[in-house]
Amino acid sequence: MPSLRDLGESEVLERLKAERVAMTGVSLGPGDDAAVLEPASGMELVATTDAFVEGVHYLPTWSAPLAIGARLAAANLSDLAAMAARPRWALLSIGARADSSVESLVELQRGVQSALGRHGAGVVGGNLTAVTGGEWFSLTLLGDVAKGQAWRRSGARPGDRIAVTGFPGRAAAGLALARRLGTRERAADWEALLQAWLAPEPRLDLALELATRRGVVRAAIDLSDGLAGDLAKVCAASGVGARLSADGWTADPELDRAAATLGVDVTTIRLSPSDDYELLLAVDPAQTTESQAIAAARGIPLAFIGEFTPRAGSVTIEDRSGVERPSDERGYDPFAPRSA
Amino acid sequence: MPSLRDLGESEVLERLKAERVAMTGVSLGPGDDAAVLEPASGMELVATTDAFVEGVHYLPTWSAPLAIGARLAAANLSDLAAMAARPRWALLSIGARADSSVESLVELQRGVQSALGRHGAGVVGGNLTAVTGGEWFSLTLLGDVAKGQAWRRSGARPGDRIAVTGFPGRAAAGLALARRLGTRERAADWEALLQAWLAPEPRLDLALELATRRGVVRAAIDLSDGLAGDLAKVCAASGVGARLSADGWTADPELDRAAATLGVDVTTIRLSPSDDYELLLAVDPAQTTESQAIAAARGIPLAFIGEFTPRAGSVTIEDRSGVERPSDERGYDPFAPRSA
Known about the structure:
Chain A is of the alpha+beta class.
């Protein structure tokens, strides 16, 4: 397998370019100074960017390049899901070592493209440069949304119900188990949790469908830093508080089993840093049944786990006996010293 | 000066956000899952991305963060200049060490914003993550251009004149002198060349003005990998060749002096890898005088250094006695082993 140094930049760029697929709305694709794109008229543009760093966001021993690329795309797609925006075009900026194999880069881009392609988007340009230390991949994703219809973090009102998709906490549990298990081979028992960590599925289709029912969702955020931290961001942006209940969570025997194995309370796992790429939504209380039915029709659990309150900035958790305590879980901070 | 670890991600993001300026065409700025932007109707979107890596694209001993940010913006602005597109919105993706000072990050973003702001653009979002090795900064810049009016690499025809702005080769000479000089203090003699390397000025205003005269410029590329390499890309995209003449270059006594000091032929410096962020244009031969006058009115030299030929893929250099030799200069390759 040739390395980037063997092949040289131009040839590597040619190989990456050759893999890209034709897309609508592209006047000029990769290979010029910039890409030229055709926004649909009457739509607003939605832009996000997310980066994965070797050893921080992925462990090469656990993920093949294809899966790393798909997960990077999922992180960006999830941001657009939280805006109810349709993904369209992406730019992939790569910092790679000269001794890396060309094949690994091609595979990573293939993973990005494949995940984007499932939602009608694709890579239209990028940048490739050399690093000597850890490799990194920064993806910028552009999408569109009808004017004024993007979901925001700031729309939650007191009384709105707090809904979450899927199984928050699984990604963190998967990562903790992977650290403990050491090798991929011993991990068969924990497949569902490892998949939640390694191959999350962004909730785009559900978001776009919910968005067609105007007013059902009043605020949204994607869960990439952990539920408590991300919920606090919605509260801050909306000027409200939140009360989480002990009930209402989607039953998750896999997570219960992991919590027992790891010796951690399951609620703590659900609220603490975890990049699940699920959605947290503020839902009109009159629309809980309808929104749950829409999600169920797609096979996606939508759990109502509490409500927004008028107490700005206060996030509390109510236990089964009705006792309320302040949430002390914090969001993920990449600069904090990592606990052992 | 607090470090990123001292302050934590949320507070650092708040500081970066506080520095951002209000801009037109932004429905929702930083602080949500994505930015929401309002493209002007009837315009195409132009998107480019470029990244700077510590030790590769900048040397911290030579450039303060403000200058690194401005140069990163210049690299992206130059790509839009080569498309004749108006810059509008940027997303800044950062990989920083936990022990870096918050101030250095704020300064770097200030440099990006200040350079973008001179051309009516600004930062509307981004990403911040932790690295343990070399830091990096990846900027995605979006602009717009009237439908079908973007300059491309593919428009050059045999007979079109090859024009270059400014003083190609100065950036490479500046870098070579910096490596030799070692410290900034001893560099006063070479200020013009060091500035070309450290603080290039993208040729956006000139590009946008030339673009108002339809048909004057038929193809364009920005010079970021070196003139010979970039010219070869235009030839490949346009299916033409090029013949460079020994005459026609803008006189550059500073570069002549550097060539003598470095013991390198001045033409070799001009053609070899150098990130000058000048423009190379294919100009309608009937419009050479007019385009030169437009550039001169802005104080920018525009030199006609050869012409495109029907010999696809052939790039030659004619010396003063009329002898033609093939160009053997290659473009910059970040993965090639660096010569001593």
